[in-house]
């Protein structure tokens, strides 16, 4: 990809630099706040070579793929710093009006999920990295444990049989390194979540991190609480209240005393609310969610696996899938595993299978080029390139791909596949698979991919998709 050309063309078709507000990115999308949507040429944006799709929501999201989104965003922001004139009062008014109209269209549930997604998008890259390192660490430890059992290795002193093998293989230091790095994220995740939540809700970011730190303090037992009680749900709710309270108090505190009194009052009130109200209540809610999800998976069986996996492509297409990250992380904190995430990433298999069928069926050279680039990316990492670049434009392929994903979800439940981390999909999710069930994961992924391919190919043939006239 010519990143400079893509960035320049995106800016051009978005109405120029003066029409851009805040520009950021997630794993696959360049997310832009637009002053006036009337100045955006959506058709031209979608036609840019390298752009896989465009989603219009509370922000304008241009999908370019993993890795590429961050590079394009950096280039756009460099242009903004160097050449954007401040928006006029008319532009500001249009932006405020557009924001109000967008807010009216969103349901409360969608608003909440959007906030949660925005909170966790900045944490996703280190989450993926820590999960992969944890997976490699588990693979090494499990391998040593299996070898010790097969060869009846005895413990030596304080070393377990597995530790003896790791010592012989000179891997003890490596194991400690992976353990420290991965736990450095998962152990202090409430702090990072508090920081990004405060940024999302417009409060003091370090104050948000401090409230997150309180939830994992070992001294909590003195108040009848356990570290981590209420999980990330409690942290997010507490930080939201903190940001609201901070704005209210700042209005009445004299400027000369603001830097001292405002944080002191806010911290005292919110820490008290956190310890005596929010953590106990959030603990009940968190436990109910975990029991509900585990109950659904245990009693719903294969049907639950099918329905959940088939629905995930729709959540991804709406940008709401990140809203499930707190549930995945709560499952990891409570049980060490995230079975729901293993089902979720079967959406990747279904979308790859459907896109492969479209590649073989289509007569459109543009679609073929997009599919050739999107399919390998989705096999390795995330499904958005095939979702937005191939399957949604094809129409029926998105439905057949989702059905194929459902069958992959059934195999996940049948074989008991789960993960010990979140964030990655496709082949890059292999190190996240728990209990060494790598072959079972591959089998589930291939099942979803194969069924999606077959359904899409047959449906395309029946619809005459392979005979459709090329666009002029």
TrEMBL record:
Compartment annotation: Cell membrane
Stored InterPro entries: Glu_permease_IIB, PTrfase_EIIB_Cys, PTS_EIIC, PTS_EIIC_1, PTS_IIB_1, PTS_Sugar-Specific_Components
Major location (coarse): membrane
Protein EC: 2.7.1.192
Segments forming domain PTS EIIC type-1: 127-472
Pfam families per the UniProt record, alphabetical: PTS_EIIB (PF00367), PTS_EIIC (PF02378)
CDD domains listed in its UniProt record: PTS_IIB_glc
Domain PTS EIIB type-1: residue ranges: 4-86
Keywords tagged on the record: Cell membrane, Kinase, Membrane, Phosphotransferase system, Sugar transport, Transferase, Transmembrane, Transmembrane helix, Transport
Topology within the bilayer: Multi-pass membrane protein
Residues at the catalytic site: 26 (phosphocysteine intermediate)
Enzyme class: transferase
Residue stretches spanning the membrane: 119-140, 228-245, 257-282, 302-320, 340-362, 374-399, 411-432, 438-458
Catalytic activity: N-acetyl-beta-D-muramate(out) + N(pros)-phospho-L-histidyl-[protein] = N-acetyl-beta-D-muramate 6-phosphate(in) + L-histidyl-[protein]
Record's protein name: PTS system N-acetylmuramic acid-specific EIIBC component
Organism: Tatumella terrea
């Amino acid at each position: 990809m010519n990143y400079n050309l893509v960035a320049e063309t995106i800016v051009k078709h978005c109405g120029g630099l003066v029409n851009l507000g805040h520009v950021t990115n997630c794993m696959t999308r360049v997310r832009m706040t637009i002053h006036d949507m009337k100045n955006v040429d959506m058709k031209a944006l979608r036609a840019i070579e390298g752009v896989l799709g465009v989603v219009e929501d509370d922000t304008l999201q241009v999908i370019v793929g993993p890795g590429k989104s961050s590079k394009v965003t950096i280039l756009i922001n460099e242009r903004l710093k160097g050449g954007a004139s401040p928006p006029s009062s008319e532009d500001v008014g249009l932006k405020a009006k557009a924001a109000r109209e967008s807010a009216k269209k969103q349901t409360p549930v969608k608003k909440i999920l959007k906030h949660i997604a925005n909170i966790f998008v900045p944490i996703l890259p280190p989450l993926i990295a820590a999960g992969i390192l944890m997976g490699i660490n588990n693979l090494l430890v499990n391998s040593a444990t299996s070898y010790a059992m097969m060869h009846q290795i005895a413990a030596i002193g304080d070393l377990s049989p597995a530790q003896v093998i790791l010592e012989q293989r000179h891997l003890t230091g490596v194991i400690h390194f992976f353990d420290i790095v991965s736990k450095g994220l998962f152990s202090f995740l409430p702090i990072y979540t508090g920081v990004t939540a405060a940024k999302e809700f417009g409060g003091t970011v370090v104050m948000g991190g401090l409230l997150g730190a309180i939830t994992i303090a070992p001294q909590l037992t003195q108040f009848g609480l356990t570290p981590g009680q209420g999980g990330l749900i409690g942290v997010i709710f507490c930080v939201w209240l903190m940001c609201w309270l901070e704005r209210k108090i700042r209005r009445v505190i004299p400027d000369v005393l603001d830097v001292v009194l405002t944080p002191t009052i806010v911290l005292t009130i919110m820490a008290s609310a956190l310890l005596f109200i929010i953590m106990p209540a959030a603990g009940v809610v968190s436990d109910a969610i975990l029991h509900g999800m585990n109950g659904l998976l245990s009693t719903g069986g294969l049907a639950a696996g099918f329905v959940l996996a088939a629905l995930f492509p729709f959540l991804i297409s709406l940008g709401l899938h990140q809203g499930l990250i707190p549930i995945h992380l709560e499952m990891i904190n409570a049980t060490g595993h995230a079975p729901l995430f293993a089902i979720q990433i079967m959406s990747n298999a279904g979308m790859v299978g459907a896109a492969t069928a479209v590649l073989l069926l289509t007569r459109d050279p543009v679609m073929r080029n997009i599919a050739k680039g999107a399919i390998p990316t989705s096999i390795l990492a995330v499904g958005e390139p095939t979702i937005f670049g191939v399957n949604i434009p094809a129409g029926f392929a998105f439905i057949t791909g989702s059905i194929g994903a459902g069958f992959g979800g059934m195999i996940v439940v049948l074989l008991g596949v789960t993960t010990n981390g979140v964030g990655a999909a496709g082949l890059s999710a292999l190190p996240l698979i728990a209990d060494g069930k790598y072959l079972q994961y591959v089998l589930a992924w291939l099942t979803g991919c194969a069924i999606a391919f077959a359904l899409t190919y047959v449906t395309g043939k029946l619809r005459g998709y392979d005979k459709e006239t090329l666009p002029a």
